[in-house]
Design a protein that fits this description.
It is a single chain. This protein has 689 residues and is of the alpha/beta class. Strands 11-10-15-16-8-9-14-12-13 form a nine-stranded mixed β-sheet, with no helix packed on it. The longest helix is centred in the N-terminal third of the chain and has 29 residues.
Length: 689
């Protein structure tokens, strides 16, 4: 390049090669991971882990969903969700780099490589669709503004920009909106120049028509989706109504119980309901409906603007590597100070700062700005400032970059960018991948184990669900039919068509309330058991709920909620005996072992309970147990399985009792088959000498 012997095309090829090497570096050494639970959910839906391939992806436009579905149908063994998203990121950053290189192969090449270094971690490593949508949208604007400025008759370049804007809106419309606000400054500078030149015809033809066409396609696709997907009465339409109501309440803040107790009680809600909403435990279809959310929003008063959040975020913002890179480019653009008055792009260079502040002010009115939103905004912030400032820098410096100047500038740009991003680009190489950490390995082992038996379904609380994405590589395809028996008590995905259809397979509709109805429902939680029991007890009169521990996999315990079973019948046909008892886990649990005198054929598919009634008070309790049959993963059976080793032994692990189960209690073993339970004649040998 110093000898001017390399063409623009050759510089582009070098840039693409550098880009490919960086992606390989990120994949091999920086341990990419899903940036949010939403990302894992989308990857799971795309992979068919909820039962079927679908074009409906909850958060993503169905048009993009059809693209993903097509890839999965053609080559089902690959994780096309990540591959397609990576492809969109790669093409977007490459397109922006090509635009800059065409302006000036020296300065533009340096800026393009700096952009790759700055975007490597937030896009390729902390993989998240909101940020992907932001960079795709930004690339669309850069392409169209460059095409309009040069006024070349290149329909392919214009079409690429329009398609990129469409795809960005499909991936995440909210990100498209934020980036569009950022990009408005680039359009303003064009409008200001037209006002000076009075070239109205060219302005409307080159600067306005492509965007009119792009916005027409974007909003037209939204209308088409409303007609074809969100048809009245469809599961998708129900979920959108539910999700919009959920956003108004949970995203903007749940009113405090002490302040709005009368309003809550007027809706038939309790303090427990308020706590559930605050913790996003909303998987109760009967109580937490879209109408419930709307009614709470109606009496909630708007919070005053929280100015202290703005101060906090301005401080945080000033430390962000992407913001520093945009700010340094602005300073470089201003130098030398004597030339400030002749700067032409002052609107497009300064506007992203105002847009960034405006977006943050909007979100601060709602809640603290999410880190993902911050990064998505900063990505477009850097791209638009570098695009606007880089043009004049290229014009002023291209000829000044002599043999030594080019080497110094290139090395300086590289080390400044890498120095600012060193924490993101170098530190992870020496850290253990999140997928290989002890909690992740344990959680992955748990999922792999419990997903094998589709006859039992498991419900997670939202805290343990936060570890889901850690156990999977973003390049690894989630197995088909993997999550059909795994659900979460928190999060708005519970009402999505995929989860609802899975629940219907188990003849359930309300996930939260099903936990006390079915011995196929297991609550996996060490933190929210008591809260779950309070919720169910407050909601359903006459139910006294307790819990018992069924299994343990690694660091995770599997519990079952238990209840007062009605309609039990005595039987003298079968007998059982309570054989021995002991304490476990530092005397936190009482363990009871028993024998059931029934044949394996009589026990097939049945569950077992320990029933007790206080002779003095008449108070009754039931606890679920497990059959001492272990599968290849070491799990004990909740339902008797004749495919495993035959046994007549059962175990109950329950919270430590205040009194021993002696003659002060009538104790029975209960065998349950579906909704019917039979109390067996039970001999109590627990305290025999």
């Amino acid at each position: 390049m110093r000898k001017e012997k390399y063409s623009v095309w050759q510089v582009k090829c070098l840039f693409v090669t550098f880009h490919l090497l960086l992606v390989a570096y990120a994949v091999l050494f920086l341990h990419p991971f899903y940036g949010s639970n939403d990302e894992f959910t989308l990857a799971a839906i795309a992979s068919g882990a909820y039962g079927d391939y679908t074009q409906y992806f909850i958060y993503i436009h169905s048009g993009f969903g059809w693209i993903l579905k097509l890839f999965y149908m053609l080559v089902p063994g690959w994780n096309w969700y990540t591959i397609v998203m990576y492809g969109m990121i790669f093409l977007s950053l490459t397109a922006i780099g090509f635009v800059w290189i065409e302006r000036g192969k020296k300065t533009g090449g340096i800026l393009a490589m700096m952009l790759l270094l700055a975007c490597l971690q937030p896009l390729y490593v902390e993989f998240q669709y909101t940020k992907t949508a932001a960079v795709v949208t930004a690339a669309g604007y850069v392409l169209l503004f460059e095409w309009a400025k040069k006024r070349k008759k290149e329909p392919i370049a214009a079409a690429a920009g329009i398609v990129w804007l469409l795809l960005g809106s499909w991936i995440r419309f909210h990100a498209f909106g934020m980036v569009s606000l950022m990009a408005f400054g680039m359009w303003l500078i064009r409008a200001w120049q037209v006002w000076k030149d009075r070239d109205w015809k060219g302005f409307f033809l080159w600067d306005c028509m492509p965007f009119v066409l792009a916005f027409g396609l974007i909003f037209g696709s939204i209308v088409m989706e409303n007609v074809l997907v969100y048809t009245p009465g469809s599961p998708e339409a129900h979920y959108r109504e539910y999700d919009r109501a959920r956003q108004k309440l949970l995203d903007y803040g749940v009113p405090e119980w002490d302040t709005y107790q009368a309003e809550y009680e007027a809706l038939g809600l309790t303090r427990t309901d308020c706590i559930n909403l605050e913790n996003w435990l909303i998987a109760d279809y009967d109580r937490y409906t879209a109408d419930t959310f709307q009614q709470i929003v109606a009496f909630r008063q708007d919070l005053p603007f929280q100015w202290e959040y703005l101060v906090d975020y301005l401080v945080i913002l000033a430390k962000k590597p992407l913001f520093l890179l945009g700010f340094l480019m602005t300073i470089l653009w201003l130098l030398p100070l004597s030339a400030i008055k002749v700067r032409k792009n002052w609107i497009s260079v300064g506007y992203p700062y105002a847009a960034l502040l405006g977006i943050y002010l909007y979100f601060i009115k709602i809640y603290r700005v999410l880190p993902i939103v911050v990064t998505a905004c900063l990505l477009s912030f850097v791209i638009f400032i570098w695009s606007a400032a880089g043009e004049e820098i290229t014009f002023s410096w291209e000829k000044k970059l002599s043999k030594r100047g080019l080497l110094t500038a290139g090395a300086g740009g590289f080390f400044v960018t890498a120095g600012i991003c060193v924490h993101m680009l170098v530190t992870p190489v020496f850290q253990l991948p999140v997928q290989e950490s002890k909690p992740s390995v344990a959680f992955r082992a748990l999922y792999d184990t419990i997903s094998k038996n589709k006859e039992i379904y498991y419900a997670f609380d939202p805290f343990t669900n936060n570890g889901v994405e850690l156990g999977y590589s973003i390049l690894e395809k989630i197995p088909e039919d993997y999550l059909t028996n795994i659900f979460t008590l928190g999060g708005w995905e519970t009402e999505s068509p995929q989860v609802v259809s899975n629940l219907n397979v188990y003849e359930q509709r309300s996930l939260l309330t099903s936990l006390y109805k079915s011995d196929r429902a297991v609550l996996i939680s060490n933190t929210l058991l008591e809260h779950m029991m309070l919720h169910l007890q407050d909601t359903y009169d006459g139910i006294f709920i307790t819990y018992s521990k069924l299994n343990q996999i690694g660091d995770f315990d599997l519990f079952a909620l238990n209840y007062k079973m009605s309609g039990l019948k005595d039987t003298t046909k079968f007998h059982a005996s309570l054989d021995r008892t002991y304490t476990a886990e530092n005397e936190r649990y009482d363990v009871f072992e028993a024998t059931v005198e029934m044949t394996p054929e009589e026990l097939q598919g049945k569950s077992v309970f320990l029933w007790m009634e206080s002779v003095e008070s008449g108070k009754r309790r039931m606890y679920q147990g497990v059959w001492l049959q272990q599968d290849e993963d070491g799990l004990y059976s909740m339902l008797y399985d004749t495919a495993l080793c035959d046994t007549d032994q059962v175990r109950f692990t329950i919270p430590k009792l205040s009194y021993p189960l002696d003659d002060r209690y009538e104790v029975r073993i209960v065998i349950r088959d579906g909704d019917k339970g039979r109390k067996l004649v039970t001999e109590n040998n627990l305290y025999q000498p």
